[in-house]
Amino acid sequence: MLNFNLIIVTTDLSEYSLRALPYAVGLAERFKAKLKVVCVNEPALQVSDVAFVGIDPLISQREHSAAVRDALAKVVASLPKTVDIEGKVLEGVAVDQVVKYASEVNADLIVSCTHGRTGLSHVLMGSTAEALVRRSPCPVLTLKQPMPVVAAQRGA
After folding, report:
1. What are the residues whose beta carbons fall under 8 Å from the beta carbon of 93, sequence distance 6 or more?
2. CB within 8 A of 126, min separation 6: which ones?
3. Other Cβ atoms within 10 Å of 12 Cβ, number
4. E runs forming strands in the chain
5. CA dihedral 58, 62, 65, 69 (to 10 degrees)
6. Which of 100, 107, 114, 124 could serve as a FRET partner for 39 with CA atoms 20 to 30 Å apart?
7. What is the model's pLDDT at position 9?
């Protein structure tokens, strides 16, 4: 029998990526699984990028990390309390960190949005979801948006 005990849902805190949350919550409810809402704080600037302008990159990165943690905490607090939900902020390259974390916690499923880019924008921007599917230690449910989110009818 198919069973999910631990589901990871990825978000970059954009409106677009937050659309995966209802799907992940619904799956966690159905399978009585724990849900980890994972956001990866990727370094925006390298030390060499800002050294000449006098910005302290460590303070800037620390402030950004704190803002990401606060934003993720608000997202998690807004979710239904029908399942065991925990927010987790990881630091580094998104795909690398999600794959590593999924292995560490023995995740059964990863839920992630895909922007559905094609052509040159796909080549230039790459695809985090595509790399996640290729490298993940568990199945990955990708959601191409926009998709309508339909609430499950109780008792049906």
Report:
1. 40, 42
2. none
3. 16
4. 6-11, 34-41, 85-91, 109-114, 140-144
5. 170
6. 124
7. 96
> What would the pLDDT profile of 61-115 be if each residue is shown by its tens digit?
778 888 999 999 999 999 999 999 999 999 999 999 999 999 999 999 999 988 6
CA distance 7 to 45: 31
18: CB partners within 8 A, 6+ apart: 11, 75
The model carries a pTM of 0.79
In order of start, what are the domains of the chain with their CATH numbers? 6-144 (3.40.50.620)
Contact 37, 76 (CB under 8 A): yes
Backbone angles phi, psi at 91, to 5 degrees: -115, 130
What Å distances lie between residue 15 and 122, 124, 150, CA to CA?
20, 22, 17
Residue 45 is encoded by which pair of tokens?
A: 């600037």
pLDDT digits (tens, 9 = 90+) for 3-43: 899 999 999 898 888 989 999 999 999 999 999 999 998 87
